[in-house]
Amino acid sequence: MAERWVVQFCHCHYGPFLDVARQYAALFAGGPYKVLTVYLTGKPSDKARLESASDEVVFLDYASRQVRGLKLDAIRALRRLIADRDVALVIAHRFKPIYIACLATKLPVIGVHHAFGGYLRAPRRWFVGAFRRRLTLLGVSDAVRDDIRRCLAGWPEDKIQTLHNRIDVAAVRATLVAREEARTTLDLPAEAKVIANVGRLHPDKDQATLLRGFAQARAQLPPGTLLAIAGSGPLEAELKALACALGITDDVRFLGQVPDVRRYFRAFDLFVLSSDHEPFGMVLLEAMAADVPIFATDCGGAPEVVADPAHLFALGNSDELATRLVAFFADAGATDSSARADNEAANIAAVRRLEQCFSDTAARRRFFSLPAVAAVLPSA
Q: Of 149, 196, 262, 342, which has the fewest CB atoms closer than 10 Å, so is most exposed?
């Protein structure tokens, strides 16, 4: 019997997109379909080849300037790659791969969007409209899905669905460093309470609100509480100056870019995502896998991960964040048995939610129940 294939077509393997490729290849692990992952741009890499978790990986190695305009050469390249294979489905990440996959094949295409605003431009709306019969679109959160639905108002709802980002929970936990070692590596005091943020120092991440909220709450937090910010970016000098102006320089640690930072998450007592409309927030799942409680802004995809409304705060509202921080550490420091039981129950619920909603296993169930997938992969 001829091998059947699913082709995964990715724009690149840099940053978070290598794990995205792993996530989608993992959907087919142990099943009857082999996975060919194709990267449109990006140099060939042994690391990318291994971590793509695919049966075969191909690097087309186009420069960015080569995939502007009509992309005819890339269309021909993809067509050649699949010509001698029995391919059932193409999964394409982001608009350029969706465009190429639709023109290079006559196959069903699932287009995955990882950000907002994918169809604000009329030419993109016209293009996908021409392929609507065999094209299904996925958002990595309900927020991204709803953004696509607003732009493509005439599409049936079952053609625009959600498949949340996820992690291999066991694999992430296996890499975690013990709390003491993590504190030593990050040069954090062993006994201090540590509030953490990880991300680029960029306006979209809004660490300025985090600094202000921490400054407002500091007097009511446990003595010696620190704010640790891991990442680099164009706002580094500005954020350090803000910390100085707020009088919290000694209580804020700018850790810089920490390689494979998620290994050290057990160093933290609380993780805060202050971002402006994060499409999803993978870092929240990584914190949950390390059993670290999470706070996030109440916009974008983050509220879909943070189930507890008491752990959400309005974007840019440092007053509300400060109130949440004070309440959290007051509850965490409670000595009565009822409060301790509530905290333990909340931690258990977070772990259960991670497994049930944001794991590879949960995603596999959801993916194969999608009408567009069930129609073409009935035996998967």
A: 342
